[in-house]
């Protein structure tokens, strides 16, 4: 049975012109350089994507995969969780993006497929607020606790506080915002590299939250929902250990994360995870050079599927 927190269906975008985005490099400290040609990098990323989709399908996760348009001006298209999110009750949100070239990633054919296959009541489109210089980059900027109805947000230029309040009012979440920095003192650009929330546990880089009071608030609110809190170190966060997503497969819940992230976790942390979810490591080293990992690649579908009954003759 699908958990409220762990969707059984996802949307993913197959990259055809993948590269580390030059427009986001200034505030995404997780991006790294590569020595390969642009064509080779794109080819490698596409192969990693296809293998990841295959692994998810083998676990029984339904994957709606779309090809991007092969546009060199959308190098981050493989990370669709930033421009839309779905919610129980039939709601979809479409978000304003900070970097200009990321605004081209929005795909209304994706929304149309969701309307066709799932019960969608409304689509709230915040993207026009880009013209006012506002950004709220979906479930990258917000890590959503669908059980406790809390939106955890690391403050950044990708999470406008006014728009955050508006989203939380529309979608019935309580915002908990905090400052978070890496070992170099740089602000964490997206909350979902810092933390991931599953049904029975949460993985959080608590030591990166600069305020002791807010650190305590985040941890205590997660524990209120009977979750075990796995405290990740700054080094583990740098290996994308926090950028994981729990999904529901044929045999129960799985935690999808990268092989790099898995190697960074300790045995006691893995034991907590495996009490309620199977581990599903995916090999995506090329994609991770863009500063995102498995969670960023996956947009969960928290919608009720339509049942198509055969028409009477």
UniProtKB/TrEMBL annotation:
Q: Which Gene3D superfamilies match?
A: L-arginine/glycine Amidinotransferase, Chain A
Q: Which Pfam families match?
A: DDAH_eukar
Per UniProt, the keywords (alphabetical) are: Hydrolase
Tell me a Gene Ontology molecular-function term this record carries: hydrolase activity
The organism's place on the tree of life at top rank: Bacteria
PANTHER family linked to this entry: AMIDINOTRANSFERASE
**What name is this protein filed under?**
Citrulline utilization hydrolase CtlX
């Amino acid at each position: 049975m699908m958990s409220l927190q762990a969707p059984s269906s996802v949307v993913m975008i197959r990259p055809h012109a993948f590269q580390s985005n030059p427009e986001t490099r200034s505030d995404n400290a997780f991006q790294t350089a590569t020595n390969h040609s642009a064509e080779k990098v794109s080819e490698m990323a596409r192969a990693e994507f296809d293998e990841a989709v295959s692994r998810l399908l083998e676990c029984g996760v339904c994957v709606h995969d779309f090809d991007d348009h092969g546009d060199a001006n959308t190098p981050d298209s493989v990370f669709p969780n930033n421009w839309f999110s779905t919610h129980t009750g039939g709601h979809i949100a479409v978000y304003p993006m900070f970097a200009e070239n990321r605004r081209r990633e929005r795909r209304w054919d994706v929304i149309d497929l969701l309307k066709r296959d799932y019960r969608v009541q409304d689509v709230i489109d915040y993207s026009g607020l880009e013209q006012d210089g506002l950004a709220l980059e979906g479930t990258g900027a917000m890590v959503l606790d669908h059980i406790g109805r809390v939106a955890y947000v690391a403050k950044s230029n990708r999470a406008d506080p006014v728009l955050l309040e508006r989203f939380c009012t529309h979608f019935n979440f309580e915002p908990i915002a905090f400052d978070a920095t890496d070992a170099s003192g740089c602000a964490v650009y997206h909350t979902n590299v810092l933390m991931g929330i599953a049904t029975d546990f949460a993985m959080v880089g608590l030591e990166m939250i600069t305020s002791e009071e807010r650190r305590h608030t985040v941890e205590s609110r997660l524990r209120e929902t009977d979750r075990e809190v796995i405290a990740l170190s700054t080094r583990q966060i740098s290996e994308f250990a926090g950028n994981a997503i729990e999904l529901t497969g044929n045999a129960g819940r799985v935690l999808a994360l990268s092989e790099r992230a898995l190697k960074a976790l300790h045995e006691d942390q893995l034991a907590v995870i495996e009490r309620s979810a199977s581990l599903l490591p995916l090999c995506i080293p090329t994609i991770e050079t863009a500063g995102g990992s498995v969670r960023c690649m996956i947009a969960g579908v928290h919608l009720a599927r339509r049942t198509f009954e055969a028409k009477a003759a």
